[in-house]
Amino acid sequence: MTDSVLPAADALSSVAPPPALPAAAAASPDPRLQRFRFSGSAGEYFGIWIVNLFLTVITLGIYSAWAKVRKKRYFYGNTWLADSNFEYHGNPVAILKGRLLAFAAFVGYTLLTQYSPRYGALLLLALMPAVPWIIVRSFAFNAVNTSYRNLRFHFDGRYREALAAIWPLFLVPLVELLIPEVDPEHRPQRWQDMWPLLVTPVIFMFLYPYVVAKVKLLQVNRSRFGHADFACRATVGSFYRVYLLTYVLLVVTVAVFSGIGWILSHLLIVLVPFFYLATGAIVLAYTKSRIGNLVFNTTSLAGGWRFRSTLQMRRLAMIYATNLLAITFTLGLMIPWAAVRTARYRAECLALKGEESLDAFVGDMSRQVNATGEEMGEMFDVDLSL
Amino acid sequence: MAASFPADYFNGASSTRHAVEVEVDADTVRIRGSEVALDLAAGDLRVQPRLGKLPVRIVLPGGGLLVADAELMGSALPIPRPAGLSHRLESHLGVVLGSVAGVVVAAWLAFTYGIPWAAREIAYRLPPSVEAEIAVEGLKALDSYVFRPSALDENRKRRLSAIFAELSAKAEGAGRGARLVFRDGGWVGANAFALPGGVVVATDQLVVLLQDEDRIAAVLAHEIGHLQYRHGSRHILQDSLVGLLALALLGDATAVANIAVTIPTAMVHSGYSRDFEREADRFAYGLLKQTHRSPKLMGDALAELERAHEARGAACKPDSDSDAGNTKPAKRSRVPDYVSTHPATEERIRAAEEAAR
Question: What is the pTM of this model?
Fold first, then answer.
């Protein structure tokens, strides 16, 4: 829902294991391979998390912007590549302003949808022109506020490019308004008559992979580290392959688990929510691992550097499932542990490969970018991150 | 006396890492490495806030950066107090434990008092037109997917409607002037529902099962209680508020955490439902007494319903719930509500008998 920056910084929300810097490079079979690693610990992060959460609560949410910066600094800062860590520079005041704006928009939307879903769809349609702007701003804010070795990342994408990536989503509320409303007086008896209910979700599922692919490609291809450009040569078709299998997997797991759930429901009703969580863990692990690998493995930096991502669906699903259990049974207190171990695994699976030294990048001084776009994106969950 | 520590230096124009030695002598800072020689005034250095065990970052005038281990820096270059404040709080055991207690207490207060209070305040301020819409739309949805037209004879309906009118005339606010409709409950079976906006639905099966009109009156009084206290709207509002609050507190972590938050949320939901049922029961006792009936009727009706549901078998036990605002029973159909959202039936029967004394 939150983090997604440029390719390299993406590894931030994910990140990796304990010490051993040059040792890691030396131990790896390929000397040109630079592994990412994450050095954060659950115990240490717990203190940071809970103190910031408490400050957020007693300030009625105001402090959440500062808390977010602390959190991002912790995860970026504990992500290492070749003896140097990443750094997050976001300004809490800019984030707070964005959050207030996003909150106001969210409250307006919620009130309207409570009143009538149709008004909600209309409002979404009215907000559509702002979406490309939100995407561009949030990518730019994240990029320019990320640095490695005192060089900033940049995102140069334009409004019209983001618009070209997401325009198919505009069709969804349009279709919603065009299809006939189901008339309760003539309830659909046969499955075939239910089509008006299915049109919107089916269209959305069909368009979604295209939009994810285009947004991801925009993000990577318009990102720079200093003056070095990122380039991703993944095809839209390869995103469709992943999402098609995601849909199949979703249907299969839901079918299997509801089957088991139905059988068990009379004996062990309490288990039902856990099947629902298991479905979530498996499907999420599939999409995240496949899309993550797809994007990183087709991305290069400055022509010569390549990423290598080896996320495994099974490992990730186990991590997600155990995270879910731990978080559920501790009413959220294990969230820091879950976040740290996920970051560690994701960093472990990422490496950078190239002939040259990481000393060779050059850059320029950064410029400031407003945080509003990012916060709007976060609230409405249009940040189509990995 | 000069103190020194090792650091990495980055000039801001390239990604080259320079290993340097930083010497601090009174107000002068000397940075020396194989290709670096900088002399700076200590006052021009900006030490960034500390965080965990991460190396300390020192921004130099002109855009350069020093990265040094906090331990090795020692007291050579003191970290200004404001830059260390957050770190001192976050790594202080007492503050951490205090924060855990603070967050737990705040969450408990919010879920126990804050959310029910806010939902009540909002619900009582809802314009009648909004609630009326819920009733109309809710009944339409139920008619489409669950109910069939009632097959009860007209005399019986008229008598029950008269009893209902007598009861609802004694109620206040949203309970007064409610409307009673009859439906064949289909797979829902013997049940009654209160839809926000002033509609009570009684199923044919309920009427047939309870037979005695006074016992049916007890169930109707309970439903009028749901309307008077706006339980339906409060339910919807509470669920939304719980979700929002949980997400605000615990979200932000990972997408997975957002999913996990829904389970404790469901448990909170059950707690609220039980409170509403007790409140509606208590309301029903009062209404029954006012119309010269015994609150014990409520217990009799519950016992009868419980027996009927047991007879139908746990296998396909539907919503044995006379829950207000639950306009989508299909979604929860396999969940035996007495397990969670209703207080134990025995407990309610006992309460009814006590109220009758």
Answer: 0.77
